Amino acid sequence: MDRSIFTPLAQAGLTTLKLQYNWRTDEHTLFAAREWDRDLDFSRYTRDFHAHTTLTAEPLSLGTAQVHALFAEHGLDGYLAEILDLLRQGRHEGIEVYFHQGRNIRFMCHQHSRKLGLRNKHHAIMAGGTRRHDPATPELDVIIDGLNLGRAMSFKNIAAGLSFGGCKTTLHMTEPELDDLETLGFLAFAVDRCRTMTSPDMSLDTAVADVMNEHFSSQFTNGPSSPIGESGTPTALGSFLALREAVRFREGSGDLSGRSAVVMGLGAVGWYLAGHLIDAGAELTVADINPARIDALRAAHPGVVIDAIGVDEVLTFEADILCPSAIGGILTEKSIPTLRYAYVFGPANNQIKATNQDEELRLAQLLADRGILFQTEWWHNTGGVMGGAEEYLNGAGSSPESLRERVTATVPRKTRENLEQARELGITPTANAYRQCTELLFPAREATVPA
Questions:
Q1: Where in the chain do CATH 3.40.50.10860 domains reside?
Q2: CB burial string 166-197: b at 16+ within 10 A, e below
Q3: What pTM, to 2 d.p., does this model score?
């Protein structure tokens, strides 16, 4: 049996699934529906219909008990229970699912919290990127990734001072072509239904945002034609400024000249972060699965010594600073004891491999016990979401200069405050960042049952 929440939808001819959790009452509510006809042409989205048009003469909807029965009918009641428990563990509001059966497009918006965005007077009340996963990836891994990132977006928006709730959208599908308006129209329709502001993330061409803005939806930002450019530049700047502030916090000076630093991953963010470290006089070592990226970085900085190591050597290499800038999940129970760095400060999402907050806090404590200064990345890799908000809120009036000013004014200050508070409370910077966000999003007075 295929362990997928889309299996019952496909068998029953349904298009929509909503798995919701109310942390105040500790209750799950489920909804499934047929909301459009299978032959609906989504390339006509915004021309012939909008996100809330009734799109079938024969709609069908199922409530909580009926959805449970549907999953049980397909032997997936246990799988559904696993997912619902993940929602409960992280106090996620839910997962909103849309299914294009003809193209096998599996859209999931992992929604952690709407609280900060409910009164922001904009269509989008949540913000979070859209990440594509290959169809061969196990669905539960996709869901866990999306939930973790959605939770981080709630907290990242707090760190960035933005009035948006947090979510993450995952696409479990093959890579879409930029001229495939049926597929892109469906994705725009689903994003608009979810009321989220988004931008292309890992494994999704950033040019998708430009196509969306031209044909369908203004909720997409950070494409190549954006007035502020792609999101990697401000994210790298913020991460660099946070690192410098961490060094200043511990050693009294933020001077990075002569310090040895490793950048793991030279993608859209790591490339620019490496440039900042070079400009600051750090002794740079890089690792990337694509040797051509290393060659290109050396060519872009003639006369600068840039050492290179294999990606598999990073976690046992010795240097002052490690900047994870590629995939997450590298800090584990097994890898943390092998680290020989004084600082782990980088922009990669989900650097600690954990399925829940308690596990993340435990591993952050292991880093601290080894004398490694680490701050959860969502407290400082906020430049990208600041850029998305800048473009979404100000349109053509946004600029790289105003974004740079915002990142420079916000990220190092928030990092310094977090590190100082953590020291005063005797907890890790990661625990303190969670403490601040949890007190804001989940006030004890709002709960009617134990959290």
A1: 6-215
A2: bbbbbbbbeebeeeebbbbbbbbbbbbbbbbb
A3: 0.88
